[in-house]
Design goal:
The complex is a heterodimer of chains A (about 525) and B (about 120).
Chain A: H1 2-59, H2 66-77, E1 82-89, E2 94-96, H3 112-117, E3 124-127, E4 139-146, E5 152-160, H4 163-213, H5 228-308, H6 317-347, E6 356-358, H7 360-377, E7 382-385, E8 393-395, H8 397-414, E9 420-427, E10 430-437, H9 444-447, H10 462-465, H11 471-481, E11 486-490, E12 496-503
Parallel strand pairs in A: 7-9
Antiparallel strand pairs in A: 1-2, 1-5, 3-4, 4-5, 6-8, 9-10, 10-12, 11-12
Chain B: E1 4-8, H1 12-24, E2 28-32, H2 35-45, E3 49-53, H3 61-70, E4 79-84, H4 90-97, E5 101-105, H5 109-119
Helix pairs in contact in B: 2-3
The chains are: A alpha+beta (about 525), B alpha/beta (about 120).
Chain lengths: ~525, ~120
């Protein structure tokens, strides 16, 4: 965790600081103690040498008395720190060394200090090793002896052993290291405590921010102090609180919206239901109505056909003609009623296809047969061009029959001279079926309109030609329900070609309404 | 003896048209007004063919056909369904119910006669 790393870093930093400060302080103390010890040692050495020199000078006004000086030297020699002592004359030759044997008598020591000492009129102090603490170090003190007249008569030389002082310094050093370690340990503990204390509110804040970030707004951070971190915690808590409030407000708003949408949806649904019901009622009414209308009409057509078939006896010729008109008009009326019913079904979205395999060739043949009398009446040649090898089609044969009947019926109806033809071809995966006539043609402006309900090109013709104007729009819906397209190519005076495509295998109705 | 045809049709005019047509062609006609009556008469008379209107009150032509077919003696009797033009899918339903052939209303009397002659000599 980041907060713990921060705490570690803080602890280490504090610890380092404590260690540096303690070490610096202890080093200073150690230095001071050491130099004081050294100074005391040197002062003692110098005073010992000065005292000895003064004593020797006092007892010898111009010459040195050996028995006296030997005693003095011996006294000094017996001091525990003194390694050696000797008295030399102005030529540097040793006169006495404080021992019983006086073994150095009349020798000249061959060391550089000695050579300097016999020429200089002040005290010389010099260590064998510059490092005071070096083992076996020795302090040489050369004290010249001057008569009151200023005559240099020689000097004393004493070698002091600094071992006890060294010992004391080393002991102090050990103590100080121990003290330092103790300080460092205490410092480490204190650092840990302090940094933990410092990091804890930051840790709290980090945890709080994390849970807010992850969406849990129910966070309250303990306020542990009244400093900036405490202030931050207070600010964080009030921030979380206002976030909670905002979230709750948003939620209330969303719930309000939801219930509003729910209410609206409910409203729409019930309106829709009412509309659907009304539409269903209308379609049902139309279906019932057309059934009711067709029943007597079927009777009229049936009886007329029977009469015309001489079932009830031979029909006189002058009655036969008007009876034929009765039959034609009845059939026309039936066609209109059927159109209205189809339209009602289309509007109700209930135009269903009865899909099965069928032969386009057979459909074309049956339509040609049905239309032959109508064409013959107007002396119009009826031509069909159907390829010999066509694959079996799949769709609603009766509905395709109806479409073709409508197109061919229109073509014959609007054509007075020339001819009417049906052409079938296969183009990839669809059939292209077209009905051409040599009629008056359709103006471009009318070409889109004629597929709309209740529209016929040139309204003046409508009463003359009959028809509801529903046939084409129904035909188009049927073709589109099969997944095909329908259109017309025409120019006024040059006839029209109505065409439609039909997928060879239409599996089901596509967007029937 | 001339062939007997059972006509099941609820509309009086339609019954009369078919009766007059078939009489003139020399057939004997038995008439039923409802589906139940048709089923009863079919079992009683064992006609040579049955003309079945589909839109009938109480039990419709499909159900009547199924009941007639349930009688082993009438398993092979031709049943010609007569249905309204506009109701797409009626033909398939008629064949599924057990009808032999199918004529759409309104029919040309001569077409109906031709269909009957196909099944009854």
């Amino acid at each position: 965790m980041r907060a713990f790393r921060l705490q570690t870093r803080l602890t280490l930093t504090f610890l380092l600081l404590v260690c540096v400060i303690v070490a610096a302080f202890l080093l200073l103390v150690l230095n001071a103690l050491q130099s004081e010890e050294q100074q005391i040692f040197e002062a003692r050495a110098a005073s010992t040498a000065a005292l000895l020199a003064a004593n020797i000078r006092n007892i010898s006004a111009s010459d040195i008395l050996f028995s006296e000086t030997a005693f003095l030297l011996k006294n000094v020699r017996q001091q525990p720190q003194v390694r050696y002592v000797y008295l030399y004359d102005d030529g540097g030759t040793i006169l006495a060394d404080g021992t019983e044997t006086n073994s150095l008598f009349n020798t000249v020591p061959a060391d550089p200090i000695h050579e300097r000492a016999i020429r200089v009129e002040r005290t010389l102090i010099q260590y064998r090793d510059r490092n005071f603490l070096a083992p076996g170090n020795l302090l040489d003190v050369a004290q010249p002896i001057l008569l009151p007249s200023g005559e240099l008569i020689g000097g004393v030389r004493i070698g002091f052993d600094p071992a006890p002082a060294q010992q004391r310094i080393l002991q102090t050093r050990k103590d100080i290291v121990l003290v330092g370690v103790a300080f460092a340990l205490v410092g480490a503990a204190l650092s840990a405590v302090i940094s933990r204390h410092l990091v804890r509110p930051i840790h709290d804040l980090a945890l709080g921010a994390q849970s807010v970030a992850s969406g849990d707004l129910d966070v309250t951070i303990p306020v542990r102090s009244r400093d900036e971190l405490g202030g931050l915690a207070v600010a964080f808590n009030s921030m979380a609180a206002s976030l909670r409030e905002n979230k709750a407000a948003l939620q209330r708003h969303a719930e309000g919206l939801e219930s509003m949408i729910e209410a609206r949806t409910q409203e729409l649904r019930s309106t829709n239901q009412r509309l659907e019901e009304a539409s269903r009622h209308k379609s049902q009414f139309l279906a019932n109505m057309s059934h009711e209308l067709r029943t007597p009409l079927n009777a009229i057509i049936g009886y007329t056909s029977l009469i015309l078939g001489n079932i009830y006896g031979e029909v006189p010729d002058k009655v036969r003609e008007p009876l034929d008109r009765v039959r034609l008009s009845s059939r026309h009326l039936l066609g209109l009623i059927n159109d209205v019913l189809d339209l009602a079904k289309i509007e109700a979205g209930r135009l269903t296809l009865s899909v099965a395999d069928f032969s386009i060739t057979q459909v074309v043949q049956s339509v040609m047969t049905a239309m032959e009398p109508l064409a013959a009446e107007k002396k119009l040649p009826l031509k069909a061009s159907v390829p010999a090898e066509l694959p079996a089609a799949r769709g609603d044969a009766r509905r395709i029959n109806q479409v073709l009947l409508n197109l061919l019926g229109n073509a014959i109806k609007f054509t007075d001279t020339g001819e009417v033809g049906v052409r079938v071809s296969q183009d990839g995966r669809e059939f292209l079926i077209s009905v051409s006539d040599t009629g008056p043609g359709i103006a471009p402006a009318d070409q889109g309109r004629i597929f709309e309900e209740f529209q016929q090109a040139g309204n003046n013709d409508a009463p003359l030609k009959g028809g509801t104007g529903l046939g084409l729009s129904i035909a188009k819906v049927i073709v589109e329900a099969h997944g095909g397209r329908m259109g017309v190519e025409s120019s006024p005076g040059k006839g029209s070609t109505f065409w439609f495509t039909l997928p060879i295998r239409a599996e089901r109705a596509v967007g029937a309404s | 003896m001339s062939a007997r045809i059972l006509l099941i049709e609820d509309q009086a005019d339609n019954r009369r048209i078919v009766r007059d047509l078939l009489h003139s062609a020399g057939y004997d006609i038995i008439e039923a007004v409802t589906g139940e009556e048709g089923v009863t008469l079919a079992a009683a008379h064992l006609p040579d063919a049955i003309l079945m209107d589909i839109q009938l009150p109480t039990i419709d032509g499909y159900e009547a056909t199924r009941r007639i077919r349930a009688n082993p003696q009438l398993r092979k009797t031709p049943i010609i369904a007569v249905t309204s033009y506009a109701l797409s899918g009626d033909d398939t339903k008629a064949f599924e119910a057990g009808c032999t052939a199918y004529v759409a209303k309104p029919f040309e009397p001569m077409d109906l006669l031709a269909k009957v002659r196909e099944y009854v000599s």
